[in-house]
Request: fold
Amino acid sequence: MTFGDLKRRFWPDAGAEFMRWALSLSALLLLTSVSHGAERADAPEQFLGQFDAGVELEAQDAEMLPPKPEIVENDESVPAETGIASWYGPGFHRRKTASGERFDMFAMTAAHRTLAFGTLICVRSQVTGRGVVVRVNDRGPHVRGRVVDLSRAAAIELGLHGLGLKPVEVVPLPPGRSTCQDD
Reply:
């Protein structure tokens, strides 16, 4: 079916001027949505590596946010886990997490299936030995065999960003600690 057939079928009385206007409007909407999506996917580098870098929220969004969860004291009886880590970012940026706060892909946060929200954990690469401290603020990962989903900033710090998946060890930090223990 050609464009002329569609025009005759759905807009039999539409003139050439109307069709040019409709096509121009469609192209404009398409370009606007593509450029808007690309704008949000780019990460300002000045935010990477900062703990909980702020995201400017519109006034109405700020009123609806619950108070930021506190960092909880970790139970020392929680064992370390090993498995695959993954990361998530642009598609979820500024959406609500399971804890009720907005996801910030520039913050050092993570999603874990069972640890309490606010728990600080050390995620250490089993390949490089490099570790990062993140705060649990979401539930996940929702893929079998993975133990933690990291924010984009945490993935970059861990050297996971380009690979997408990496074998890691996840250790909840004991009370009073905010850094990964060097082995």
